Amino acid sequence: MKKFLGYCCSLCGAEYSPSEIAYTCPKDGGNLDVLLDYESIRRKFHPEDITSRGDPSLWRYLPLLPISEPEGDSTPLHAAGWTPVFALPRLAEKLAIRRLWLKDESRNPSASFKDRASAIVVARAQEINAKVVVTASTGNAGAALACMSAALGQKAVIFAPRSAPPAKVAQLLIFGARVILVDGTYDDAFNLTIQAAQEFGWYCRNTGYNPFTAEGKKTAAFEIWEWWVETHRAWHKQDSSLNNHPPLTIFVSVGDGNIISGIHKGFKDLLALGWISSLPRIIGVQAEGSSAIANAFRANTETIVPVSAATIADSISVNLPRDGARAVRAAQETNGTYITVSDKEILRAMSELGAQGVFAEPAGAAAYAGLVCAAAAGVVGSEDPILVLNTGSGLKDVRAAMQAVIEAPIIEPTLEALKNLP
Ligand SMILES: *Cc1c(COP(=O)(O)O)cnc(C)c1O
Ligand SMILES: [Zn+2]
To answer: How much is the mean pLDDT over the chain?
Structure first.
């Protein structure tokens, strides 16, 4: 079955065949949406054909992806996705919200959401026989690409800003990628990567440039859909008086805007297939110091004005977001919104999530910090069922984590010293 029809520019609507083009629209630089043959997918598959698959990874959604699964069956690449959802009853009570869950993307093989994108891009690289895959990264996209590439013996080159947290750089190196630290920002690394890919014929994974990253990221929407159908059914069984409750609201942190766009795309796929009847509400959360997309949303425009980004949340620190227009739409078309949070609020969210057993990196905790603000401002109410995404592990940035906590005391190894502690 040929399900991958081609690409459609998200700005001008121009369509391209799969072999005609690899990255962005040549006319206006717009991000490309992958076009799938929904008719033939719908004829061939029912939702149960997917939900009954045994595969606990994002590869269970292969019928809805524009690629084929790489050979071999138990590498880290094959284990990407299918992350757990936890209830957060104590935080729910604190926020006066009846139903609150967190989907923990730090459980991915390289410990961030980015594995979803990198798994699909590496699968594409194998299909087109790419010798080398390259990406610019603040750390996580690179770690994910290095990990997924290592799993299949694919060569990878990563450009990261020299300011990337050491744990992330260690991950890149341990996975055996060629790592080049750029004396500049993420945006500088981004531009250099595109030049290098052109010069050396490498396949470029850059976020908001390669159309396959959003296709990987959309698998989180499919998992949320499966989980929600189950959860919703159980919930109604418990309380049959429930019928007209609000839709699910999803909180996600936003840097380049590719995760939020990918999640939006996933739900739009399901809508086009007739497998859902409406979209959940999607709320994007940015750091106050890196809020180019939130600014555009508030100005009601898709034109993104770059900022000079500064935030502790390095994974969402971006001057010029590369997937801004689609990221604005993701909130607009789902009755969602954008929230901005301060670094202080992000650090508080890290310690609050930690106290529930979830260790998030700053960019991951930002989504929860956004919920705290949204609840205080009445953007969400007590009856809204809410799912927060934690996009990355706190172990990736222990320096930031240490700022979120009070340091442990050091004592002489005596009972007396212990008793003397304040
Ligand atoms: C990349 C990343 C994000 C933001 O994703 P974008 O696609 O850049 O918006 C959020 N959290 C973490 C941990 C990330 O690595
Ligand atoms: Zn275009």
So the answer is: 96
Nearest CA to ligand 1 atom 2: 315
- Say whether pLDDT at 228 is over 90: yes
Q: Distance from the CA of 203 to the center of ligand 2, in angstroms?
A: 21
Pick from 182, 133, 135, 174: nearest CA to 156: 133
Q: Which ligand is nearest to the CA of 316?
A: 1
Q: Is 142 in the pocket of ligand 1 (CB under 6 A)?
A: no
Cα of 380 from ligand 2 centre, angstroms:
35
Map the chain to HEC letters: CCCEEEEEECCCCCEECCCCCCCCCCCCCCCEEEEECHHHHHHHCCHHHHHCCCCCCHHHHHHHCCCCCCCCCCCHHHHCCCCCEEECHHHHHHHCCCCEEEEEHHHCCCCECHHHHHHHHHHHHHHCCCCEEEEECCCHHHHHHHHHHHHHCCEEEEEEECCCCHHHHHHHHHCCCEEEEECCCHHHHHHHHHHHHHHHCCEECCCCCCCHHHHHHCHHHHHHHHHHHHHHHHHHHHCCCCCCCCCCEEEEECCCCHHHHHHHHHHHHHHHCCCCCCCCEEEEEEECCCCHHHHHHHCCCCCCCCCCCCCCCHHHCCCCCCCHHHHHHHHHCCCCEEEEECHHHHHHHHHHHHCCCCCECHHHHHHHHHHHHHHHCCCCCCCCCEEEEECEEHHHCHHHHHHCCCCCCCCCCCHHHHHCCC
Tell whether the model's pLDDT for residue 1 goes beyond 80. no
CB atoms within 5 A of ion ligand 2 belong to 9, 11-12, 14, 25, 27-28, 30
List the Cα angle 169/170/173 in 5-degree steps: 90
The verdict on the CB of residue 293 being under 6 Å from ligand 1 is no
Domain residue ranges of the chain, discontinuous segments joined by +: 1-44, 76-111+214-403
The CATH fold assigned to 76-111+214-403 is Rossmann fold (3.40.50)
Instruction: Fill in the amino acid letter for 335.
Output: N
pLDDT at 333 over 80: yes
Contact 294, 309 (CB under 8 A): no
Q: Is the pTM of this model over 0.85?
A: yes
| pLDDT level of residue 351 (50, 70, 90 thresholds) | very high
Q: Is 6 in the pocket of ligand 1 (CB under 6 A)?
A: no
